[in-house]
Description:
Shape: globular
Distance between the termini: 22 Å
Helix content: 10-25%
Number of strands: 7
Number of helices: 4
Strand content: 25-35%
Order of helices and strands: EHHEEEHEHEE
Strand order of the largest sheet: 1-2-3-4
Radius of gyration: 15 Å
Amino acid sequence: MSRIREMLPGEYGLLEEFLYQAIHTEPGEPRPPRSVTADPALRAYVEGFGRTGDVAVCAEEGGEVVGAAWARLMRGYGFAGDGVPELAVSVLSGHRGRGVGTALLSSLIERCSELGYPALSLSVQRSNPAARLYERLGFQEVSGDDGEAVMTLPLGGRDESAQGGALRPSSDRLHIP
């Protein structure tokens, strides 16, 4: 059983590995080289993590961090508006399919709501099984194409700048759940 908790600043370095693990590939396709996380568009999800507004939770089993969900204010592939943090989530392969991702996302959603964020956003490939998880949690598509979708979840936070139609989709996409 996983214990979900806030990620400690000393653990933020793990996010690069979780970012790599979050990259969705179709069954039978080779994984991209690890160097893909050096791409500036991907680095934005983890570089300098811990700045004001960053939020991260993790799943721990037997003293090992086996999953993470994090959000930050940025203009990434799932950008949906100013003041709306974009999230990423990843669970190590041996720990998937047991509700860890759901628990991580539920905890992150709760934490971001407590912090007063108006919504959360993400980008997901339509073929990624995680897309169904996001829908079950209440995320709704705000833009997309045949392969990918940008989804948001309203949180009812205090930031008025991101409410009332300000959820704007991005034309860029990231291949993470």
